[in-house]
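Folding follows sequence. Below is one example:
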Amino acid sequence: MTGLELSRRYYKEIGRPMLEKQFSEYMPRIAAGLVGEGSECFGFDDSISRDHDFGAGFCIWLCKEDYEIIGEKMQQAYDNLPKEFMGYPARNTSKRGGGRVGVFEISSFYRQFIGNEQPPQDYMRWLYLPEHKIATAVNGEIFEDNLGIFSEIRNKLKNYYPEDVRIKKIAARASAMAQSGQYNYARCMRRGDVVAAGMAQAEFVKAALSMIYLLNRRYSPYYKWQFYGLKRMQQGFDCSFVLADAVNMLEKLMLTEDQSSAWEPPHPEGWNPYVNRYDKKVVLIEQICSSVIEELRNQNLTCGSEDFLEAHTWRIMNCIKDETMKGCHITEG
């Protein structure tokens, strides 16, 4: 059983009856569900992740007025709920995993992820919010929301970035992919600096993963779940998912062995120090960038045919209508 399913049943069979009995007059004003930090909120939990911060639990969200009146009392009632459910022991909470379930005031809950503006009120605020924090604010499931305040904020966030912000971020990722993967990886390998080359590869993968989320209009989760999240979407038979081939190539890139021998003399005929196709990683990087460029064209974000992603960044920027976004440095976002 997944953590989300466990939470849903725990609320339905244990939590809601308690609330109906002890706080019946507030039931029309309560929101409940499981949202926030933890792999179970994304549906990513497995046998490995259940060694900490896992177990039966849920969130209750109250407006500020109600929280000030009954928040503490409701938290006490929550703390007195059974510590075992369906054979699962009490929630195993680590020192850093506390405070993820229980009773919350709505604005305070969102504040820990997106700040005081709920949702953000201007493009620059959207641009600089950590993407994984927004992903955390909209994950999980709402079991019920009778007042509707919690869901109203959530739904506005789930509508995704304003388009000009999305395009600005895409331009920044295109620049990062070009510089780290298509340019710096090769330069570092030519110098024999495999550590720097590895760092360039890691930066390329990081930017490419983010790019795929942006082109699919999905928020990227915390780094350790980025690839897993894409694989889940890829395997979910969603016909709208784009760049599935790039996801596979990124995995292959990470599994490819060191390519130092491809840079050692004597160099074979046709050897190119800038795009060394005897290096398997270079080939994969170029193929990934080619797939991204094709999708950029599909989304009318570029009309160019160049292989180097950097050449497309200003065309992407020219798609932005907002003058503030358009005036940002290419790497911002």
Notes: The chain has 14 helices and four strands. Residues 3-158 form one domain. The beta strands are 31-34, 59-62, 102-105, 141-145.
